[in-house]
Every structure is written in structure tokens, then in C-alpha cells.
Prior knowledge:
By secondary structure, the protein is mostly helical. Helix content is 45%, strand content 9%. The N and C termini lie far apart (30 Å).
Amino acid sequence: xxxxxxxxxxxxxxxxxxxxxxxxxxxxxxxxxxxxxxxxxxxxxxxxxxxxxxxxxxxxxxxxxxxxxxxxxxxxxxxxxxxxxxxxxxxxxxxxxxxxxxxxxxxxxxxxxxxxxxxxxxxxxxxx
Length: 128
């Protein structure tokens, strides 16, 4: 990013994409809460590479850390919404990259996920 203003424009576009994506079911609504938490952290950080611990993110989203881990694993990471760039240690949170979702494989899951995780609770497939 060439400036803080450019970073805020990128985050505003990302927030718009997240807010206009249909998030179905409880898992989808939970994923939306987690993404909103990461967006809040990104706005404070001034760009799409926020630092946040599991504890901070779970508290900001109003969910348990266990639920947070499930949403990371089954929705947000496989669908391209979030990617952990660096694992945090001690008092320093992990560094995250906020993606635009929809840029991944059409089923948003990948072969390693169990079929029970492939449901209408995921964000829509690209082009649908």
C-alpha cells in the first residue's frame, strides 16, 4: 500500500464484499462475526495484515476459542477469507492476511474436510 488512505480504501472494499456475501446458517453467521473482528483489527493496524491472538479475536467476535478454531478450519481459511502469515508468540498475536474469499476451489472445502462441513453454511461459490 502506498498510503494509509489506500489501505483504508482496500479495507472498505473488503468490508463491502464481506457484508454483501450471503452467510447462511449458524456457522456462516459466526464466520461473519470473526471476519468483522479481523476487519476491526485491520482498521486499527491501518492495513489488511492485522495482528490478533485467538483470545482477542474470540472476545471481539463474542465466541469461544473452540468455536473460533472450527470456523477458521472449516470456513475462513479454506474459502480464502483469512490466511495466517505468522504465528504469534507470547504477548504478540498472529499476523493475518485478509483475503476476498471466493478465490478458492468451488466447493470451499477441499478433500480433507468431512462431508458434514460441506453445507449451505459456507459463503457462496465464485460465480453463483
